[in-house]
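hiii, so i know i said id send this last week but things got crazy w the move. better late than never?? heres the sequnce for the chain we talked about at the cafe, plus the structure i predicted for it. fair warning i was half asleep when i ran it
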Amino acid sequence: MKREALALHHNHSELAGAPFLIIERDEHELVVRRHREILHFFMRGKLDPGPWLLAVTSLRGGEFTIGPDYLEVISFVGAAAVTHGSVRVKNADVKNLGMIAHVFRRLGVKWEVEGDDLIVPAEQSLEIIPDMDGAIPEIKTNVWPAFPTDLISLAITVATQAKGSVMFHDWMFSGRMYFTDKLVGMGAKIILCDPYRCLVQGPNQLYSENLESPDIRAGMSMLLAALAAKGKSTVRNIGQIERGYQDVDKKLKALGANIERVED
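okay and structure toks below
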C-alpha cells in the first residue's frame, strides 16, 4: 500500500492524476482508490466529517467490465436445488461466491466449477449440516463479502426442501422474514421467532397457492417455492420480481419449467 501525506481543504483538493474514489475514512486518515492503486492518506490533525471532494485536473478514458449479477446466479442455483435439476450458469464470476458457497453447502447444496462457469449437479443431498454436538446451525447475514441479506429469502426457500433444522438471522432488515407466512401456507414448517429470525425445519412437501410478490427477493423466493410445489400456483405483482430479474419466466421456461405469463 502506498502512503502519502496530504493536507486537504474542507471542500476540495487539487490532486494530479487519475480520478479518486473514497472507500474508507476515520478520524485521521483516508483510504482512496485511484484505478487499481490503493492510496492511504494520513491527515494532519483531526479529519472533519466532510463532505469531502477529491478533485482532479483532468480525466482520461478507461475500460471496465460489468460483472454478472450474483443474486440472479444464486437464484438459478436455488431453482435447480428445489426442483432436483441441474443447471450451468456461464460466466458466473465464481471467485467471488466463496461465502455464498459455504452457506449453501450447509444446506446440502454444492456446485462445481469449470473455468468461470458454475454447474449445479442434479439430486443434491439437501441435508443441513449441524453445528458441533448436533446443534442447530445459524445462517446470519452481514456486509459483503459475508452472506448478503438479499439472498436470505432464497436460502429460506431452499431450506424448506432440506433435511434438518436451521436458524436464519437477518439483523439488517426487520421485514425480511414476513414473507415466510406464505411458505407456511404452502406447507413449510417455519417458526417466525421475531422480525429478524426464523427457524426452518425440513424437508416439507409444498403445495400450490395463490401468491403475491411483496418485493424482489421474496417474490423470487415464492417463485422457487411454486416450482417445487405440487399443483398450479399463481404469483401476482410480478412487476416487483422484474425489477431485479429480466425475462425470468423465459429463462426458467428454457430450463424446463412449466411457467406462463398471463394478464389479469
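btw The helical segments are 70-83, 98-106, 152-159, 180-185, 216-228, 239-242, 248-254. thought thatd interest u
miss u guys!!
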